[in-house]
Design goal:
Number of strands: 20
Largest sheet: 6 strands, antiparallel
Number of helices: 16
Strand order of the largest sheet: 6-7-8-1-10-15
Radius of gyration: 22 Å
Structural class: alpha+beta
Distance between the termini: 30 Å
Strand content: 15-25%
Helix content: 25-40%
Shape: globular
């Protein structure tokens, strides 16, 4: 791609109830998101018309039912946000999707504002009911064998064959947890026992490539749902990452993969690394706290996770040495190298930057003071509490308030991201319409805005190109249109 890369993330939040009678997680999740008060258009629906998660990038469609809730239930499940993102219930979890962004720094700000939104939901629910009914966690496992997702989206050119993508990204995703893991006490999903590991999700991956996201989870997901013109774009749907509390892992997690995809789109030679057993490899990486273990490659060679990441970094540096580079990309390359250097020297040097290192040190310090071990229930509770979204309760926020965690974005960027959409994608047009024409808004999706123009008529404005609908293209149009009718007339002109 020669233009900005469109990026986005989706976070499913773990939900726990303090009330034993509230046993339905779907109803609980619906109740939680219903208490967000920052909705300009609370009656808007989500438009499922152009969504089909059953298409596989390998060239087929799997059997299944596409989601089509009734309008009333749709409104309970979906809340469209002023920033162009989406707050909704997916399966049995509250979920937040960032709007489409064009830089990893934007992702950090918009993802963090999602945590803030969910914390507001809990606060407002407690105020309305007089009690703290639920707790939400930005993590990936409840410690009882259940995992929930954190997904990333990357816009790509469809000219890049999917099998080439798989070969390029599989070793990268297997080793990326060394700086992007959220840390976890114990093992799950019948994986080998361990006291503490780097990744929350690693134990739950069971194959290399598949369409599933909830069972038989793959390292490389093959969903072919671009939320854009199918003939032009591909959306790489990544499910192999952890949900991070710290900002630098999110910044690097998204930024480094975006760089790798830039190399793929440009036809650049990617490191020829093929793991002998990727599924076992991601679990081995998660258990290698010293960064010294080697992964077996096809053909008999072996490499450490750090060495594999260095190979990708070297390819990226070679490419950008003779191509234009943005300031954010330059910053990511510098930080990527610094993190790999410190991981190789001693991971504990990154206690202010990486979730898994900070969490591990916090727990080991606690165990030393209390004279307990990894199986102590209090230590396992700390694992959850690190991810608590409530600023006054979450252990991550305790570290941050004590200036023990490095920030990437400023708090003003996070506050702005709650109600202001990104300027460089169609999210700008969507978000402006949600706020400016709330009374006439019938619904939205990633690829549409729907207006109720009266007389039982719904007018759809298509948004099939994620790189149109930007501030530069539509801000004047929106500023000058005082009504939906005037906007629609100008769009036809």
């Amino acid at each position: 791609m020669t233009t900005s890369r469109v990026l986005g993330t989706e976070t499913e939040f773990g939900i726990a109830s303090r009330d034993s009678s509230a046993a339905d997680p779907v109803a609980n999740s619906i109740a939680v998101i219903a208490h967000y008060s920052g909705l300009p258009a609370p009656l808007a629906v989500w438009d499922y018309e152009n969504e089909n998660p059953l298409l596989d990038a390998r060239g087929f469609e799997v059997p299944g039912e596409r989601e089509r809730p009734s309008p009333d239930y749709n409104r309970q499940l979906n809340k469209v946000l002023a920033n162009g993102g989406r707050l909704y219930v997916d399966g049995a979890h509250p979920e937040y999707s960032t709007p489409e962004c064009t830089s990893p720094r934007e992702i950090v700000a918009f993802e963090r504002t999602g945590v803030h939104i969910l914390a507001q939901c809990l606060e407002q629910m407690a105020h309305a009911t007089g009690r703290d009914s639920f707790v939400l966690y930005k993590n990936n496992s409840d410690g009882k064998g259940n995992s929930y997702g954190y997904h990333e989206s990357y816009l790509m050119s469809r000219t890049v064959p999917f099998d080439r993508i798989v070969k390029a990204v599989a070793p990268f995703l297997v080793t990326r947890p060394i700086f992007a893991g959220a840390g976890k006490v114990g093992a799950e999903n019948q994986a080998n026992p361990v006291d503490f590991q780097i990744s929350q999700r690693a134990d739950f991956f069971e194959c290399l490539v598949d369409l599933n996201t909830m069972v038989h989870r793959p390292i490389v997901n093959s969903r072919d749902e671009p939320h854009a013109e199918h003939a032009q774009y591909r959306r790489l749907h990544v499910i192999a990452g952890d949900a991070n509390m710290a900002e630098l892992p999110t910044y690097l997690k998204v930024g480094t993969l975006a760089i790798l995809l830039e190399l793929l789109d440009a036809g650049v030679e990617i490191p020829q690394i093929e793991l002998e057993d990727p599924v076992r490899g991601i679990k081995d990486v998660s258990r290698d706290l010293s960064m010294k273990a080697s992964l077996k490659l096809s053909g008999g060679r072996s490499m450490t996770a750090v060495a594999i990441q260095r190979a990708y970094l070297k390819a990226a540096m070679g490419y950008y040495a003779c191509h234009e580079i943005s300031q954010v990309t330059k910053d990511i390359l510098v930080r990527w190298e610094e993190v790999l250097d410190k991981l190789e020297q001693d991971p504990r040097l990154l206690v202010r930057e990486l979730d898994w290192v900070a969490k591990r040190q916090m727990m080991e310090s606690y165990m030393e003071r209390k004279g307990c071990g990894w199986n102590d229930p209090r230590v396992r509770l700390m694992d959850l509490q690190y991810h608590d979204v409530r600023p006054d309760k979450g252990l991550y926020f305790t570290l941050e308030r004590s200036h023990l965690m490095e920030r990437v974005v400023h708090e003003v960027e996070v506050a702005r991201a709650e109600f202001t959409p990104p300027s460089g994608t169609r999210a700008y047009f969507r978000g402006r319409c949600i706020s400016q024409f709330a009374k006439s808004l019938y619904g939205v999706s990633w690829t549409s805005v729907l207006f109720d123009v009266g007389n039982n008529q719904i007018k759809r404005v298509p948004l099939m190109d994620p790189l149109r609908g930007t501030a530069s293209l539509t801000s004047d149009l929106l500023d000058q249109a005082e009504t939906v009718d005037a906007l629609l007339e100008r769009l036809k002109a």
